[in-house]
Amino acid sequence: MNGRTTLVLVLLALLLGGWLVVTERRDEVRVAGASGAVRFRRPDPREVVSVEILRSNTAIRLERTNAGWFLRAPITYPVQSTGVERLLEALGNLVPRSHLTGAEVAAQPGALAAFGLERPDVLTLRTREGMSILRLGGRTPLGSQVYFQQVGQDGVFTADAALLEALPASPDAWRDRRLFDADTLSFDRFEVLGDTEFEASLGTNGVWGLVRPLVARANEDQIRRLLTDAADSQVTAFVGDAPNRSGDDFGLSKPVAQMVLKRGTQEVLRLQFGTAPTNAPGEVFVRRSDFGNVVRITNAILESLRRPLAAYRDRRLMPSIAGLQRLEVRAGGEPFTLERQGTNWWVVSPRRFQADGPWVRETFQRFMRLRIDDYLDDLGADPARYGLAEPARDYAFFLGASNAAPVLLTRLNLGVPLGDGRRLAVRRSDEPGIYGIAAGDLQTLPVSATQFRDWSLNPTNVVQVEIRQQGRTRILKRNAIGRWEGVAAAQGVLPDPAIDEGLHRIGLAPIGRFPAPNDAALKQFAFDQLDHAMTLTLSDGSPFRTLRLRFGGRNAVNQFVWAAFDPGEPAILTQFPLGLYQEFIGPWFSAPPTTPSDAKP
After folding, report:
1. What pLDDT was estimated at residue 24?
2. Where would you tag: which of 233, 393, 465, 512 has the fewest CB atoms within 10 A of its CB?
3. How would DSSP label each residue in 462-473?
4. Measured between alpha carbons, how far is 309 from 211 in angstroms, rounded to an integer?
């Protein structure tokens, strides 16, 4: 044999020896005893497929399944796997402290009875390759350890008494205390029966919808909360495991409510809710159809099952308008169309101009914030009754990409105020029902194209600023070299950069836009008292030629402004930033008191 072959054999022997050491350390331990050390083989928790526990003539059998551990005896029932895993972990880490041979045990008075092993608890572990049986006896005199035997091996071992504490006190100790496990039950429909009755179905888009007694959008949050609260309802007691036990004992012959989980048309689980126990008025009896047993839970879930159907309907009038490409508006005045082109929004009819992007997004958010106050008519059989035969306003929403024809998402028809005028009738074209929304929401919705006009401006394009205040006028003009003329103010000459900065800030002002009010409303906002207006004239080629701002009263946050663009376009009412007015417009552009004017507001 040459040296290379010898070296290879030596290396293989070392590797084999190392493997034996590792596996022995994992599976076997040496236990010292008066007659010498013995080996004790520990079970591998990962290989255990079933556990049987015999305690006081009560047999408990558990099996490992793909979904976790399951109780098979004395009843078939789901298990809280943490208890089983804790026991297996204790067995996998079991290290006996000492060992007595069979002869030493027999020499004791009472033999096995002296160690509590005459009628022991029996723990049987089955793996894919075999079986391991432990007979557990009493505690040692000091109480910190327990005597036990391993069937097939001579003598008695001692180990930490924590092993006893890991055993279940009763078959119910490890039973799953949840009413049901929503994660392992496969269902896509559920039904509620009782004082309130409805059925909901999970759509292919993963969203719940109502399908009975009417087809309608569901309140996704409330539906999921109902399912979660039902599944997480904690069992306080297992009171009846016999499937054929009479329901009269628990008020289940005529359940006060039922919840049925389905997969398509196939019933997966039926929960029947009965009466309250006489000694626990805050609880209720419940029977599960899959195992036929009766349990007690707190009655909080009954309140959810008895809520009116309206509580589970989606009260958002427009849940989402993501991907919107086009909005067509007919609101009493001149109809107009708003359209997304590339990344920008434009008013494309009756005139074309660029829209204010942030205000477009705010407008869409206002539509999405509309809330349904009342379900007036789920069938929508009499639209004329609600002023919807000829709607006062119509908003059509279209989805699509810029390079494709838009597709109608829905059309909102707004009718007349109802009753005391606090509600307004509205209908979606893709839903049969007629709803009631707060009449005040009407003021938040657009009615004219001018409301979307982008009034951001480049200060270098402004060629003239005319200020009128309390019957007097000042005009600032940009000369041929780009300097401002007529800028003398009470506090001195106003530098050109300050004027341009003020104009820049005006062009970027974040504002709210509403239809222009009538003369009476203008008076209400103190426009006549303030009598302060500004007209900006822009150079040729700008998005608009003139912007006239007429300032009115203010609240703690904003200044009210009546704004008009080019002649012939409707005006709008805005809420202008108060700080901007106080800093740039009020003191800087105040008209000198000595300049007369015949200008009219």
Report:
1. 45
2. 512
3. EEEEEEEETTEE
4. 12
C-beta separation of 396 from 408 below 8 A: yes
Identify the three-state secondary structure at position 281: coil
Q: What is the pLDDT of residue 572?
A: 86
pLDDT tens-place string over residues 114-157: 999 999 999 999 998 889 999 999 999 988 999 999 998 889 99
Indicate if the pLDDT at residue 15 is higher than 60. Answer: no
| CB-CB contact of 165 with 148 (8 Å) | no
* Residue written as token pair 């958002």: 316
At which residue do the structure tokens 């504002």 appear?
A: 511
- The token duo for 520 is 């009476």
**Residue that is written with structure tokens 């979660």 in the block:** 228
Separation CA 334–CA 352 (nearest Å) = 14
Could you list the beta-strand ranges (E) of 312-455. 324-330, 336-341, 344-349, 353-354, 374-377, 393-399, 407-418, 423-428, 434-438
pTM of the complete model: 0.75
Instruction: Please state, in angstroms and rounded to a whole number, the distance separating the CA atoms of residues 393 and 564.
Output: 23
List Cβ neighbours of 166 (8 Å cut-off, separation of 6 or more).
83, 86, 87, 90
Q: Helix %, strand %, coil % for the chain, to 5?
A: 25, 40, 40
Cβ contact 96:158 at 8 Å: yes
Q: Do the Cβ atoms of 285 and 250 come closer than 8 Å? A: yes
Asked if residues 511 and 562 have their Cβ atoms less than 8 Å apart, the reply is no
pLDDT (0 to 100) of residue 171:
87
The tokens for 365 are 């958010």
